């Protein structure tokens, strides 16, 4: 899998530890006038856990690929292009691939800046970090434990 620094939102970026709500997390990708992303060559959004998430309660988290006309993306007014399912804190351990999905090229038009929004539900996170990036070559193999009986 090839990862481009210019299309990386988060590199072991700490989860927002604020109360339940939506927060821009990591960096934004300036699209400029090139907004037909994923049209001719599929692009994939990959979100993985870099550090195990913890919570004093039963935190849940989901992530949304959004765009906005300003670099300081406002989660309340940003255009949502896709959302992940909601993940329980127990399912957010280090090394877990939360999602690898082809980003939509149809639907709402992409605005000038692309970013990732974290939505925390139920209770705040107390720790955790994610990696999130776009790639044309996602990892497609599955790793399995070695068969011990051979």
Explain this structure to me?
- By secondary structure, the chain is an all-beta fold.
- It has one domain: Sandwich (Jelly Rolls), CATH 2.60.120.
- The chain has strands at residues 8-14, 21-30, 44-55, 60-68, 79-83, 87-88, 97-102, 113-121, 125-135.
- The strands form 2 sheets. Strands 2, 4, 5, 6 and 8 form a 5-stranded antiparallel sheet that branches.
- The radius of gyration is 16 Å and the shape is globular.
Number of domains: 1
Topology as a string of helices (H) and strands (E): EEEEEEEEE
**CATH level 3 topology:** Jelly Rolls
Average pLDDT confidence is: 91
Which CATH C-level class is it?
A: Mainly Beta
Give me the count of strands: 9
Largest sheet entry: 5 strands, antiparallel
How widely separated are the two ends? Answer: 31 Å
State Rg: 16 Å
Question: Structural class given helices, strands, pairing?
Answer: mainly beta
Brief write-up:
With 150 residues, this protein is mainly beta. It is 0% helix and 47% strand.
Lay out the secondary structure.
Layout: E1 8-14, E2 21-30, E3 44-55, E4 60-68, E5 79-83, E6 87-88, E7 97-102, E8 113-121, E9 125-135
Antiparallel strand pairs: 1-9, 2-8, 3-7, 3-9, 4-5, 4-6, 4-8
């Amino acid at each position: 899998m090839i990862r481009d620094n210019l299309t990386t939102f988060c590199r072991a970026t700490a989860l927002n530890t604020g109360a339940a709500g939506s927060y821009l997390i990591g960096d934004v990708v300036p699209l400029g006038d090139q907004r037909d992303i994923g049209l001719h060559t599929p692009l994939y959004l990959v979100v993985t856990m870099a550090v195990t998430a913890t919570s004093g309660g039963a935190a849940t988290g989901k992530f949304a690929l959004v765009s906005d006309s300003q670099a300081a993306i406002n989660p309340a007014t940003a255009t949502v292009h896709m959302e992940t399912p909601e993940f329980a804190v127990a399912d957010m351990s280090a090394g877990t691939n939360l999602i690898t999905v082809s980003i939509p090229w149809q639907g709402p038009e992409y605005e000038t800046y692309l970013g990732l929004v974290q939505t925390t539900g139920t209770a705040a996170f107390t720790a955790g970090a994610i990696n999130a990036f776009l790639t044309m070559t996602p990892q497609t193999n599955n790793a399995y434990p070695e068969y011990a009986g051979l």
